[in-house]
Structures are given as structure tokens and as C-alpha cells.
């Protein structure tokens, strides 16, 4: 298999985002058009995506775009919560493809532009519970992963899905910081039934617009019943395997982060309690809320884990 | 002794005034909702970090005198007490705003979470030092006894730095750097002075 290369063409060669989006999405008014016309000024603000609502959405009030894009973990850009917002602007997200391989009959690539145009984009308003015991409500825009996977024709032996984040130290400074925060590339994995679950999506936007770079642009996984770090960002590779694939935080510290990492208030992180969480956006005096099993998605996903001891397989 | 006038001329109260500026700044911004999406975390961590910085500053006084002949001994008490004020504010923020007086969870934290246990141990070691940071106590305890008691600051600072290291995920550089500074400042105390500078010991 050829080595996967990450082309970084000069800005002038990249398809203007306006051209990409015109195919399916629409510009929000003339002001949007004028700005969008100036192509690469990374003016994500103007890029409205055309979406349909989803029955899977919660009716809780979403966090503001400022909260979601200003407060996140994306260690490729530093370990501070504000670091991604500060440094992710450098990331070029076009062209962008995801290589799909492993135990499939029909390996290939997914082009981000096809994702945006060939699928119905759904608004999925999900709770997000970080392993650090804070939470948000994020109005993702995405596509059920199952509907994307299908066309690659899985082989019967495929039992897991492995994901990989971009490695590009020239744009992700912490990948080349002189000290190793995490082993790169960031990798994650799901069991096949988890990946095929209708709640599992590949997100391409939030708040009706394309993803801000710091939230994992241009395409990321969202698995709302697991701790946030399972929802791997800026994906460049998906492969199907028979064995449980490696997962970055699990490699980093297997005692603290299990492969499953389902939100579970009865299994504490060895160093802190997972029984309650702080909802971001409520200000200094926001009340703590009790964490729910599977982040409140138990009705939909608990059956995936029937018979499993979730205290051992945390 | 060769030293700048500035060091000796600055009154002690000025050190308090300057030292508490970050606390005022943090609280003003926290209450005016200007600390970003998660003001509690910024406030709590900010106070903890300033506590550690002032503890380290206090720890640096003796090596500065011995190796750089900069005499800040006059300000050491202020540095220590400012650090203690930050620790208390940090602890109160944790109790009131973070855990919101859920004593059950707080109790479990203190027993079960090594980083909280160690933070608490550091706090408890600092209490007698803060209480005895006055002339009366020095007289009462006797200079030698007082000095012996105040050696508690060494394990306290070390515990504070370890507390920081234990609460982070992965290995970000800051807590490691703080811990290294503390270790160096404790380590240089083992170097025998070439000349006898007993007063600084
Ligand atoms: C000498 C005493 C202490 C020092 C020097 C200290 C220092 C620190 C530092 C440097 C941080 C991290 C700052 C950052 O991330 O930028 C921190 C965080 C924290 N400390 Fe302390 N601390 C002390 C005592 C305590 C005590 C007594 C408690 C509670 C019982 C406590 C609870 C916490 C908590 C909950 C955090 C935040 C953890 C998080 O971000 O999730 N600390 N402290």
C-alpha cells in the first residue's frame, strides 16, 4: 500500500470553500456570499450547512458556539482548553480525504467534499461528557457512520473499527513539541456494533456551520454515550479489524482509560469522581449535575453491553 | 553586602499589595464572567498556581542569599503568608464553588483521590506555619524551635508540586517544570556553604 501523504498545496490551489459549499449548501445572504467569495479567508462563520433535524437530538439548550469552540481538548494543539482555539487556525482542511481499508471488499477513500454533498446532513444535538467531569450540549451536524461504512462492503471477520487523526507537525505544533504529550497519531477504536449504532455519527459541522478547526475539522467522530476523548478528531484513516484496535488514552494509561470508556457514574476515574459533572456555560455558580449512565443514552445503547461487567471493561 | 537599595527600601506591605493583585484580578474576572467558558476551573487552577509560585518564591530566598547575595529575607514572611492566602482561597473555591459543599463527595475526594489527599496534607502542614508567622511566636517557640517547625515548608511545597503533577492527564510541561524547580531549590540546600552564612540556613 502506498504511503499515505498529506498534501499541503499553496492556498491558491485549494478549491474555494464557496465552490465546495455551493453544491449543496447555501450562503446565508449576500453578506455571506461576499465573504465566502473571498474563498480561503477561513471564514467558517459564513458557511451554513443545509441540514435536517433528527429525532435523536436532545431538547436541552445547546452551548454557544463560543463555549464549544473556545473550550476544548485537542492535544495536537496543546493541553490547555484555550490552546486549540488559539493554534488550530493553522490547520488546512482542504483537500481532505479519509482512507478506508482493512477488512473490507471495497477499500477506498472518502473525500470530505463528497461527505458534504452526497449525504443528508442531520442536526444531532447531543450531550457531551468529558472524562474530566465537565459537560456541554453540542448541536453537531453529521452523518450516521453506518450509512458511510456500508458501501465499503465489510468482510464477515471485521469486528472493530480503528480511526486515526492527521499527523502534520507543521500545522499541529504539539506533535513536534520536543516533549511527548501523547503518542501520535491519535488513534481510537470502536466495536463494530458501536460504530454501526444509529447514534454514532461522523460530524462535519456544529451550530449549522462547518466545524471550527479546533473542534476536529473537517470531519470527526461523535459517540455521545462515551467520554469525549473517544470521539476522535480530524480523521484521515478508518480501518476494519478483527482485533481490538489501540486507543491513545488507553495506551497512555490503561488503568485510567479503558477501551470502552462509556460514561459511567459508578466507575470513578482513579483520580477523580465521575458521579457528577459541571455543565459548562452556567458561569461561576453553575450547579453540579449528576452524571447519567451512558450519558443519558442508556435506553438506546445499554443492550450493546448486555452481560458485560462494565466495572471491569470500563 | 552588595545589594540594590530597591531590595531593602521596599516596605513589606508593598509585597502584600502586589502579591494579591492576581487574586483580585481572578475574582473580579470570575464574578464579571470574564474567565471564559469554565470560570470555576480557571479561578481554582489560577489560585492553586499562584499559591505554588509564592511558595516557590519563599523557598528561593535562602538560595538567592547564598548563591547570588541577594537579600530578600525581609520579605520571606510576606511571601509565605501570601502563598498561604492563595492556598486558603484555592481550598475555599474547591469547597464552595467546585464541590458546592457536597461533604460526602468532598470526604471521598480527600480519602480516595491522591491529588486531593496530598493537597490537603500540604494545606495542613502550612497552617501551623501561617499561625506562627509573627514575632510573638518566634519568641514563644524560641528561635531554634521556630526554625525547626518552619522546616515543614519543605515537605509542604513538595506536596503542592506533586499535587499538581497528579491531577493532570498525560504529561504537560508545567507541573513537571514546577516540580523540578522545587527539587532544585530543596536540593541546593544540601550544598554545604563555603563560608558560614548561618543566618540564612
Ligand atoms: C499547598 C497547597 C496547594 C497547592 C500549592 C496547590 C496547587 C495547585 C495547582 C498548581 C493546581 C493546578 C493549576 C493548573 O492546572 O494550572 C491545583 C489544582 C487543584 N487543586 Fe490544589 N493546591 C493546594 C492544595 C489544595 C487543596 C487543599 C485542595 C482541596 C482539598 C486542592 C484542590 C485542587 C483542585 C480540585 C484542583 C483543580 C483540579 C482540576 O483542574 O480538575 N488543592 N492546585
Q: How far apart are the first and last residues' alpha carbons of chain A, in Å? A: 35 Å
Helical segment count of chain A: 9
Ends apart, CA distance between termini of chain B: 17 Å
The number of domains of chain A: 2
Question: Please, what is the average pLDDT of chain A?
Answer: 87
Average pLDDT level of chain B: 91
Strand content of chain B: under 5%
What is the overall shape of chain A?
globular
Along the chain, the helix and strand elements of chain B come as HHHHHHHHHHH
- Name of the CATH class of the largest domain in chain A: Alpha Beta
Weakly predicted, low-confidence segments of chain B: none
In the CATH scheme, what's the topology name of the largest domain in chain A?
Sulfite Oxidase, Chain A, domain 2
Cofactors, ions, other ligands: protoporphyrin IX containing FE
Most extensive chain contact? A-B, 33 and 31 residues
Model description:
With about 325 residues, chain A is of the alpha+beta class. Chain A folds into two domains: about 10-50; about 50-305, Oxidoreductase, molybdopterin-binding domain (Sulfite Oxidase, Chain A, domain 2, Alpha-Beta Complex), CATH 3.90.420.10. In chain A, about 15% of the residues lie in helices and about 20% in strands. In chain A, strands 1, 4, 5, 8, 9, 10, 12 and 13 form an eight-stranded mixed β-sheet that branches. In chain A, strands 3-2-11-6-7 form a five-stranded mixed β-sheet. Chain B contains eleven helices and no strands. Chain B is globular. Chain B has one domain (about 1-190). Chain B has about 200 residues and is mostly helical. Chain B has helices at about 5-10, 10-20, 20-30, 40-70, 75-100, 105-110, 115-130, 135-140, 145-150, 155-165, 175-185. The chains are: A alpha+beta (about 325), B mainly alpha (about 200). The interface between A and B is medium-sized, with 33 and 31 residues. The structure holds protoporphyrin IX containing FE (HEM).
